[in-house]
């Protein structure tokens, strides 16, 4: 069966993204040119610009691959029952994603990559969006009498930043601890912070 133009376009775009990822495993983004990427992908340089306006847009595509997954999981959380099992599932999925996509996450958390993107404003936007989704879940826990959290926004921010920073440091090798072994500990810590029914 012949592939449609749409399918071919999707495959070409995917090939460009994958080629960029492979190159970024060995070089910083500043040392990789659009020509390097298209040569690796075996496509014409002009083809790159059918899908991306610039190398920076391609870089953001790599970031959004991971952001989108976490955003979807937090959307599920914001509408999910307030139970320990739901929280445990979220942490487990975050750790599993970190293990599966460790190389990609190492790339997008590299200091040169972040400096290239000048990502501060976008990072704050993502952090705020994620925090509010966790807060929605905590607020419902308060309403249902499960929690008695005095400031759900602060708790949500603390949970998000703590989980993100710990996983990031393990991914980058700055914290000598096995990702897979961290699930139980992270879940225990978050449960202790929330003090289910104990406040």
TrEMBL record:
Residues 10-70 form the HTH tetR-type domain. Pfam families: TetR_N. Residues 33-52 bind DNA. One of its GO terms (molecular function) is DNA binding. Keywords: DNA-binding, Repressor. It comes from the Bacteria. The keyword Repeat does not apply. This is TetR/AcrR family transcriptional regulator.
């Amino acid at each position: 069966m012949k592939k449609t133009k749409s399918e071919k376009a999707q495959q070409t775009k995917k090939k460009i993204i994958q080629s960029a990822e492979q190159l970024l495993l060995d070089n910083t983004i500043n040392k990789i040119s659009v020509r390097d990427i298209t040569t690796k992908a075996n496509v014409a340089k002009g083809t790159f610009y059918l899908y991306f306006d610039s190398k920076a847009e391609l870089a953001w595509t790599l970031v959004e691959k991971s952001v989108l997954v976490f955003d979807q999981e937090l959307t599920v959380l914001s509408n999910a029952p307030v139970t320990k099992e739901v929280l445990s599932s979220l942490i487990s999925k975050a750790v599993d994603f970190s293990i599966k996509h460790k190389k990609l996450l190492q790339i997008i958390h590299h200091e040169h990559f972040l400096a290239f993107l000048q990502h501060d404003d976008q990072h704050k936007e993502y952090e705020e969006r994620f925090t509010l989704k966790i807060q929605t879940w905590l607020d419902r826990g308060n309403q249902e009498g499960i929690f008695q959290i005095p400031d759900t926004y602060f708790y949500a921010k603390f949970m998000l930043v703590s989980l993100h920073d710990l996983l990031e440091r393990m991914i980058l090798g700055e914290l000598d601890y096995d990702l897979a072994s961290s699930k139980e500990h992270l879940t225990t810590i978050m449960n202790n912070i929330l003090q289910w029914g104990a406040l």
